[in-house]
Each structure stands twice: as C-alpha cells, then as structure tokens.
C-alpha cells in the first residue's frame, strides 16, 4: 500500500485524532455487538504503548442534529412557548425537533462505548460530552501521554456530514496527527472521515492497522489475485451492483451471480422467471455484461435451478410452502427465493477449484431458514477451501459469522459499503486523503 500508517510516523507525545468506526448496534443503552470496537483495539493499543495522546472520534447512527443548526430552542424559549395557549405551526415544528434531538442525544451517545472501551483496554477512557465544545476542549487540554479520550458522536455536529470547514479546523486544533482507522466509513467524505485532511488542516494524516489490513487483503486480491479467481455476487438488486459486476468481470476468472439479482440476468437470457425479482430496466445491461464476459473469455455462472414459492413470506421468516424447479420451469405465478440444490453444488465446485474467492451478497432470502440453504452451501464451500477467502461485509459477513464459519475465512471486511466501492474499482476518500509513503 502506498499510504503511510501509524508505523511510519513518530507518535510519542503527539496528540493523535483517530477516526474509528464505533457505530455499534445498541439496544436499551447496551452494546449488542462489539465487533467494531474490537476492530479498533490494535491501533488504539499501539498508540497508547508508544506514548501518544489518543483522541478518538466516531459517528453512531443517524441522529437528528437540529440542535446544532439553529432550529433549536433554548430552555427559556421552550418554556415561553409551552406557556402559550396556542402555537404557530413553526413553533410546533421547532418544539418537535427540539424534543427529538434531546431524545437522540441520549439514544446515540457514545458514552456506553467509552465505558466498554475502558473495560477492554484496562484503563480509563475519558468521555467528552461534546465533539468540539467546552468538554472536548478541557478533556484534550488535560491529556498526558498514553491517555485516551473519546469525543461524543460526531454526527451531533451538523457540520460532520456537510464537511464544515470550521468544524474541521477546530478538530485539527486538537491534534498533531490525524489517523483514519474507520474502514466502514472510508467511502464517505465527511468532516472526520476525509475533509479534515483534504482541506490540509493537518500536516500528518495516516491510516491505522484496520484500514491497512482491509486494504492490503482486498486490494491485493483484486490487483494480484492467485488464480483461478472466483467472485461471487448475490443480494437483491442488480441496479445496486452495476459497477461491481463490470469491474469484477475484468479482474476475475469466474463471476458467479446468485440471489435476487440473478433473475434479471436469466430473463435477459430469455427465461420466464415467474414473479421473481426482475429489474426490467437493467435487462439491456445484463445482456451487455454477458457479452463482456464472452469477449473477455470469462466464465459467468448463473443459477440452473431455484427454490420457489408463491408468496413472499410475511413476516420474512414465516413458514411457507416451497418447491425446487429447474430454471426453465418456474411457474408463472411463483418466485425464486433461493438457488436450488444443483446450483449450490455447481457454485461449491467452482469455489473448490479456486485459489482466491471474494463474496458479497446472499444467494437467497437467507433471513428465512427455508431459503437460506444456498447461502449456507456457499459459506460452507468457502470455509472448506484452502483458497484466500474474502467476505465483503454486510449480509454475507453476517451470514458467515452466524453460521460459525468466521474464523475459517481469510478476511471478513468490516465495511460493506466501502468494500463494494473497492470492488467497483473506486478510490475511497477516507484513504485518498492520507499521506503517501
Ligand atoms: P443486498 O443488500 O443487495 O446484499 O441484498 C440483501 C437482501 O437480498 C437480503 O435481505 C435478501 O433477503 C435479499 N434477497 C436475496 N435473494 C433474493 C431473492 N431471490 N428474491 C428477493 N430478495 C432476495
């Protein structure tokens, strides 16, 4: 990789502003999955051990941030409005947003993460109750070498997503070195994910170990794969993965397409696919891709059979009747919700002969055990191979983890959106903004 990492700079005594991905799932104020916190630990521990002052920042969820954009009310205004017998529509709206923003301040606070992180590091992580306000100022000013401070949710600042210059400048004043280790948001260009370095407010901008690992594994597989290189794509819609399909066709030897997106390809081949998910607007595109595969001499594998049902299960995990059909025999009033057993065996065989495999997107409606068999078969094939196996985050990562195959994979990406953009061949702003080696 041509970008500098924390290993390439002297961090001793330096204030390091580290953008991490602490966007963890929460239920009733409790963290329900600590994977993202664990992913950031090697970088944080390295910085502590090397005498840096570690200032952590992250977003969490999508809070209302009207309190910070001038729509808010202070307590006195709120009381005045409450005392009135009638309120204008504008006042109603301001009261509503005020209440929502107050609720969100608690719901999306990073305070529980600071507590969890203290436990994991075995040392106090000071929590600043704002991002660039008086609490943050004080916490940063009082830091000693090896101390760790976590700032409050960056999305409480309206300027975060708007790449606000003043916000970037203020954050830059807290640090000597900017470290990006949030792979999950590396495809976003927000204040703390890229703009702070892009504007040139920090002289030194480097990546942490998580980004370094994600890039070295995925970029390496894409640029210098050990062949045969098999790419597996699934999930709902073709339209979401147009560029991914086109780019991967150029890089891989075999492209396997399963999941809902396969039906648009099958329709483009002239099959009747009943009421299966088809995007008529993309039929031309699918034809183009099939031609591209032919021209490049690449193998493009599509399902040969499907597990079919009449009505989409509601709720999604409801028990419904299903039957397996060859792809040319799907009844007109039924839809394919999983690949069939012949297809699963064919895909697994292709994986068996591969030396590098990347996978993004489930093979069917895996949320329902009846339609999870294809996804399980592919996950199992990846778990059993000696090949380099890379799971591109999102649903396929969840499926592999739930099935207990996580430690059998070479790499499971922590960023679904970011890894898809890498597969598209795009440059990620959170990485482009960093110093070159
Ligand atoms: P994506 O976010 O594009 O990776 O899509 C994941 C979603 O695709 C999952 O929620 C699956 O239930 C859905 N999906 C997979 N296969 C099918 C299918 N054959 N028909 C409808 N939805 C599907």
Characterise this structure.
The protein has 437 residues and is an alpha/beta fold. The protein has helices at 35-49, 75-83, 89-107, 111-121, 134-141, 159-162, 165-172, 191-198, 209-223, 242-251, 262-268, 283-296, 341-352, 373-384, 394-402, 416-423, 429-432; strands spanning 15-19, 26-27, 30-31, 53-57, 125-127, 148-150, 177-180, 204-207, 229-233, 254-257, 299-301, 305-309, 323-326, 335-339, 356-360, 388-391, 411-412. The protein has 17 helices and 17 strands. Helix 7 crosses helix 8 (191-198). The longest helix has 19 residues, at 89-107. Residues 235-237, 240, 259-260, 277, 336-337, 361-362, 364-365, 367, 394-395 line the site of adenosine monophosphate.
Assign a percent range to the helix content: 25-40%
What small molecules are bound in this structure?
Answer: adenosine monophosphate
Percentage of β-strand residues? 5-15%
**End-to-end gap:** 8 Å
* Rg over CA atoms: 25 Å
Instruction: Point out poorly predicted stretches.
Output: none
Number of contiguous helices = 17
Average pLDDT figure: 94
Q: What is the total tally of β strands?
A: 17
Query: Biggest β-sheet, characterized?
Result: 6 strands, parallel
The dominant shape is globular
How would you write the strand order of the largest sheet? 5-6-4-1-7-8
Overall structural class, as computed from helix and strand content, comes to alpha/beta
């Amino acid at each position: 990789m041509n970008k500098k990492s924390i290993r390439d700079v002297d961090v001793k005594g330096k204030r390091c502003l580290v953008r991490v991905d602490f966007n963890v799932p929460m239920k009733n104020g409790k963290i329900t999955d600590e994977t993202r916190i664990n992913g950031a630990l090697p970088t944080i521990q390295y910085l502590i051990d090397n005498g840096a002052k570690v200032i952590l920042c992250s977003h969490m969820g999508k809070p209302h941030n009207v309190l910070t954009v001038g729509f808010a009310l202070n307590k006195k205004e709120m009381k005045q409005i409450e005392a009135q017998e009638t309120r204008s529509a504008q006042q109603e709206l301001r009261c509503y947003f005020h209440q929502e923003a107050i609720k969100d301040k608690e719901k999306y606070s990073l305070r529980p993460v600071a507590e969890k992180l203290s436990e994991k590091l075995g040392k106090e992580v000071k929590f600043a109750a704002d991002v660039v306000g008086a609490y943050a100022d004080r916490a940063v000013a009082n830091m000693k070498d090896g101390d760790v401070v976590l700032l409050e949710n960056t999305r409480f600042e309206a300027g975060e997503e708007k790449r606000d210059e003043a916000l970037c400048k203020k954050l830059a004043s807290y640090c000597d070195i900017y470290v990006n280790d949030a792979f999950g948001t590396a495809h976003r260009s927000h204040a703390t994910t890229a703009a702070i370095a892009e504007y040139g407010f920090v002289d030194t901008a480097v990546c942490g170990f998580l980004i370094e690992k994600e890039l070295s594994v995925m970029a390496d597989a894409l640029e210098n794969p050990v062949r045969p290189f098999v790419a597996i794509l699934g999930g709902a819609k073709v339209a979401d993965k147009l560029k991914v399909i086109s780019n991967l066709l150029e890089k891989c030897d075999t492209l396997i397409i399963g999941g809902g997106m396969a039906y648009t390809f099958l329709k483009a081949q002239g099959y009747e696919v009943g009421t299966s998910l088809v995007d008529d607007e993309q039929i031309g595109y699918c034809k183009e891709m099939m031609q591209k595969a032919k021209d490049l001499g690449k193998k493009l594998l599509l399902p040969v059979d499907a597990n079919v049902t009449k009505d989409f299960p509601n709720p999604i995990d409801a028990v419904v009747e299903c039957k397996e059909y060859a792809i040319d025999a799907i009844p007109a009033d039924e839809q394919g919700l999983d690949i069939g057993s012949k297809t699963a065996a064919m895909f697994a065989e292709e994986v068996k002969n591969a030396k590098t495999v990347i996978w993004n997107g489930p093979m069917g409606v895996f949320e329902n055990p009846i339609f999870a068999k294809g996804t399980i078969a592919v996950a199992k094939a990846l778990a059993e191979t000696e090949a380099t196996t890379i799971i591109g985050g999102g649903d396929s990562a969840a499926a592999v983890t739930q099935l207990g195959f996580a430690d059998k994979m070479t790499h499971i990406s922590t960023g679904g959106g970011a890894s898809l953009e890498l597969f598209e061949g795009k440059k990620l702003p959170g990485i482009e903004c960093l110093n070159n080696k």
